[in-house]
Amino acid sequence: MSLPAHVDLLYSDADILQALDRLAPSMDEWARQSEAETGRLLMVVCMLRGGVFFFGDLLLHMKCSVEPGFCRAWSYAKGLNGQPEDTVRMDWQGLDVRDRDVVLVDNICDSGRTLAVASEWLGAWGARKVRTAVIVHRLRADSRHTPTIHGFVYPGAEWLVGYGLRDSDSKLMNTRFIGRLPGTP
After folding, report:
1. Which segments within the chain are labelled E, that is strand?
2. Residue 137 lies in a domain
3. Helix axes 13-38, 52-61, angle to 10 degrees
């Protein structure tokens, strides 16, 4: 899929592949540590839907085996870019995290609300260690969470699209570029 005229390119396919190459060694080190300390594979949880592309690519760049898991999270009002719902809702797909090292993988840490709530829940459910990985960490003064690792840091407020990030119509999610919509808050 090519870059639409109304989108400014921030991170190209090549940029994303370089970020994956930088992030995978950290994930591999966590996987080795987890298995050495607990005798179990590192559990890596994809925050659905947005994180699925980054999650898949990141795991394919890793050399160590991990146990994949999935969590469906809802924190934004459907069809309204950036409009948060009152609560964060999550479906953990029956994951058992007791005494496990867990990495939550999402496409973006924006307000940090979803990753903060998810991390708190995992801790309350007995996870041994909880880390987070995102492709984009948006810098915000009001952020509730700082990801453990990230591919890119973005200071702007514009709406981002591509690579799991969606516009109001859920278009442009299945691309390997990240762009911004100029003029959006």
Report:
1. 8-11, 43-48, 67-76, 84-91, 101-109, 129-138, 149-154, 159-161, 178-181
2. yes
3. 70
Q: What is the number of structural domains in the chain? A: 1
Residue ranges making up the domain that contains 31: 24-76+85-159
Domain CATH number, residue 119: 3.40.50.2020
CA neighbor of 185 nearest in space, from 156, 142, 153, 154: 156
In a domain, 4, yes or no: no
Please give the model's pTM, rounded to 2 decimal places.
0.90
Q: What is the tens place of the pLDDT at every residue in 120-160?
A: 999 999 999 999 999 999 999 999 999 999 999 999 999 99
Distance CA 10, CA 136 (A): 11
